Structure formats: structure tokens, C-alpha cells
What does this fold into?
Amino acid sequence: MSRSIIKLTAIIALIAGLLFIALYGLDFTETVRFPGILDPDGVVQGLDLKGGSVIVFEAQENNPTDEQMETVTNMMRTRLDGLGYTEATVTRQGLNKVRIEIPSLSDPAEAAEALGATAQLQFIAPIGGAAPVVEETAETTEGTEADETAAAEEAEAPVDLAAQMGGSVILTGSDVKDAKAQYGPLSEMSSNVHYVELSFTEEGRKKFADATGQVITLGEGNNFIAIAMDNNLISMPRVAERIDSDTCTISGDFTAESARELAAQIRSGQLPFSLSRIELRSISATLGDTALQTSLLAGLIGIILVMLFMIAFYRLPGFLASIALAAYMSIIGIILATMHINLTLPGIAGIILSIGMAVDANVIIFERIKEELRIGKTVRSAVDAGFNRALSAVIDSNITTIIAAVILIIMGTGTIKGFGTTLLIGVVISMISAIFVTKFLLKQMIGMNVKNPWFYGINKKKEDTANA
It folds into this structure.
């Protein structure tokens, strides 16, 4: 058995395995698994497929800054998590709007009312009694810093967190000027670390100084100050000494991302401006199911027709391109399922368009190969020359589409961004598939001595007669 046959068999088996994983997923252990497209936990369906509600808020501010809009979107995400809408998405829409999509919610009025209310940021100090269990503890080294423990586990929001903890509210969002993620040394002797720096108002400074002075007398287990957003615990730093300063740092096992996230959550308690609700509507799940079935059927029919077209016109290269197309679809499916990309109808359209781009690239390559065969080159030489001649055209067309997709992702919102995301992923993978996978498969067929020009779309007798 030749090496070409072994390689061809191996690549086809690999593609078949990828296709299986894309459809059904793969379980490594009970906790580590890759979901498939057919898995309920796989591809996340958007509102137009699953049904749900859309809520849009507009800032009552003429020119809100990017930082202010980020604060509002983070506040909305915190509130949605607290309300149990874990699949909801929050995106900025235009310059001064926030768009919220909540799947499977038929009556959005109550959620809209809760989201539109001012967020409640609280700093809670224990008055007495047992403190909640904290997984890690650490001591502070500076009077203006408190070490952060491991992130508190998410739990159902209690009616009154301060009462449940046996404590009292010492600060609210109005007492905090700002919260910023920082990176640097906390003291002259320490190394650079990620931390969160809080700055207080004058009144907030006095309250915090009094509270930390009382907390350090409570002893081990109660020397903490809990930070809560809408009765959801987001941080619980320990306090080692009285802190009388305009600023306070929360340090610990932070990454750049987790420090930014905590700072954004704290800032979210200070709504920078009022919001007005300008849109509130529900999308029928029945309409979504019908649209999904229709789109998938249309996509399947389109793919089959494309494969038949390539096989009919280009024969062996068309058949191999169909195998490469199966690899492309498998990788797309795996990415959608494992990354939990929110799939919408425009997103499906982006995938179908990228399939068209893949076919277009293959057609350009195969036509160049046929041109080389017509002038009398051997199959091996024609394949090499055909790919080289087509390469610039294929790359140029795909790069142009990639640039357009990136612009849609950056500038668009909601479904437009979803279209750009799937188009970008699809075009990148389809370009790799057309340039590398198809060429590899053709090389293996040549290595198996399949060199008759007829197999590559050339009708030798007819073309000889036409040239005579």
C-alpha cells in the first residue's frame, strides 16, 4: 500500500471523526466534554431562533462617554445574573443605547422594570455573629489595602444580605467615587500584581475609616467587609487595620481580567445617568423554530447542490473539494458548539455565504488547473501551476471579505455582529480548506497515479476536435 493511500485514508478518517464530534460532541470525563451541534448544551440559539424578549434602554445624557456606557452594560449584566437570566446578552447599541436580549422570556415587563431601576451597591461590615465561610484568607501589609479572597460562589440573592450576614451597610454606591483595575507594586518590597483601587468621597472616607476601625476589633473570622451588588456578593476582602485614606486597594490572586471585572462591578453601583426604556417586545418561539428548520433545510440543500455541481464539472477535484467542504463544516460546527457562539438567522446566513466563498475559491483553482492541462502540462505540473496562479486571487477576495466582516463586528450590534462573526470564522476556515486541504488531497491522488486528464474535468477528444 502506497504512502498516498495511507495519507488519504487517514485524512478522510480524520474528517469523518471531526464530523461526528461536530454533530454529537465528545466526552473526555464526566466534567470535561465538548458539546456537539445536536447537543442541547451546544450551539446557543439567538432570539430569532429560540424566541424571547428584547429590551432597549437609552441614556438620558447627550454625549455619554465610553466608560459610562461600559459601566451601564456591566450593571445590566450583574442585574441579569442576579435575576437568573444567565443566557441573556447585553450589547451597546449605537452611542447611547443598551440592548438586552433574554431568550425564552415571554413577558419582559417585570424584567424591564428591575433592570431599569438604580443598582444598589453596598459595603457590609459584620456587627457580630458567625461570618460566612471564606475559602482563602490573607493579611494586609498596608493601611490602605485589603487582601481579596477567592471570588465568592454565586448563590441565590437573599432578600437582605446584610441581615443574613448579621451585619450592617456601612457604604453605598454614592460613597464611592471610582474603582479602577491597576497593575504595580503594593509596597516598596513587593512585586507587580493586579489589584483594584477604590477612591472614596469625603463622607465615604469617614464612614470607611470608622467601619474598618470597628472591624479589626472583631477578631479572626469577622474581620472582613463584604461588597454586594443588588444583594449579590461580589467580593469579601479582609481588613487588617483601620483605613483612613481617600483610596483603598483590594488585592489578591487577581488576573488582569478578573481585576477589571471587579472594578466594573463596583462602578456599576454608580449609575452615571438615568435610563429610559425605548423598546420592549417579545419574539415568538414558534416563529423562531420555523425559521430555524427552514434555514437548516435550505443550507443542507444548498450544500448538496454545490457538491453535485463541483463533482459534475470538475470530477475528481470536485469530489475532493466536497470532502474538504465536509471538513470545513465540521470545524465550523465544533467552534460554534464549544465557544457557545450565539447563533442567529443572520449568523446562519454568514455561514452559508462563507460556504459560497469556499466554493468560489475551489472553482478559481480548478479552472486554473484545467487551463494548464489544456496547454499540455502533466497533471502534477498543472496542479502546482494552477494553485500558484489562483493563490493571489483567492487570498485577495477572502481578505476583502474578512475586512468587511471585522468592520461589521466592530461597528454592528446584535444580529449584525452575529452575521459578521460567523462570516469571519467561516471565511478564514474556508480559505485554509481551499488552499491547503484540497491541494493535499489532490497530491495524494496524483501519488496514486490518477493522472488521466479526464478525471480533472478535461474532455480530451472534444477539446482536440475543437482545437483542430
Remarks:
- The mean pLDDT is 78.
- The two ends are 42 Å apart (CA to CA).
